[in-house]
Hints:
Number of domains: 1
Strand order of the largest sheet: 5-4-3-2-1-6-7-8
Number of helices: 9
Largest sheet: 8 strands, mixed
Strand content: 15-25%
Helix content: 25-40%
Number of strands: 8
Radius of gyration: 18 Å
Distance between the termini: 53 Å
Oligomer: single chain
Order of helices and strands: EHEHEHEHEHHEEHEHH
Amino acid sequence: xxxxxxxxxxxxxxxxxxxxxxxxxxxxxxxxxxxxxxxxxxxxxxxxxxxxxxxxxxxxxxxxxxxxxxxxxxxxxxxxxxxxxxxxxxxxxxxxxxxxxxxxxxxxxxxxxxxxxxxxxxxxxxxxxxxxxxxxxxxxxxxxxxxxxxxxxxxxxxxxxxxxxxxxxxxxxxxxxxxxxxxxxxxxxxxxxxxxxxxxxxxxxxxxxxxxxxxxxxxxxxxxxxxxxxxxxxxxxxxxxxxxxxxxxxxxxxxxxxxxxxxxxx
Length: 266
C-alpha cells in the first residue's frame, strides 16, 4: 500500500477573468494568457480528480483571475463540502474589487472558523474593501489584508514578471535555484482546465504555449492512459527537480529582483 499523498496547498483556478488589468500581472493575464471561465461542471470534475489522487490537502485554495466574478463560485464552495474531511482549511484569494452576493456570503459562512480570506488591498482599486472588512468584523471571519498601495507595500511591491524567456542557467545551477524558489517552498499546486501543475508559473507559462511540455511537467487529470499510481508518482516528484517552466521563471531570484508599485493599470 502506497504512503498517503498530502498536498500542502492545492489552488483551484475556476477562471482567469479578472476585474483588473494590471500591467505587471504575475499570471500574464494582461495579454499572453486568455481570460476565460472554466465551466462549473468541468471544475467539479477536476476537483474530483484531484481528490482521487491526493489523500489530504492542508490548504484548499480558490484563486483567479478574480474568483468573485465567477458566476458559479458559491456553488463551488458548496461542492467542495463533500471533501470537508479531506482538507484542513479553505482559502479564498481576492483583489477586493467585487463583494460576494448573498449566496456567496452564505457559502463562505458555512465553513465557520475553517475559512480564511486573503485580500490584496490595492487602495482605491479595491473598491469593495470596506464591505469586506465590515463583513469580516460582523461575522468574525478570519482574514488578511495585504497592503499594496502607497509606502510599505506588502513584500515591498511587485516584480516584473513579463517577457519570460529561457534564462540559460547551467543544469546544476537551475536545480539548486529551483529548489530554493519561493514557489517550490510554498508547494502551491495549481489545478486549471483539466491539468494539475506544481505552481502558478508552471500553469500559466504552459497556457502561454511558451515551450513544449516534457513528461512530468504536469498531470493530465483525465488521461486514462496513465494509471493513478503513475499520476501520484508525478505529483510526489513535483518539487524534486526543475521542470521546463523553471528554466523561464524569474521567481527563483525574487529576493534580489527590483520591486515596482503594485497593480498599475494598463
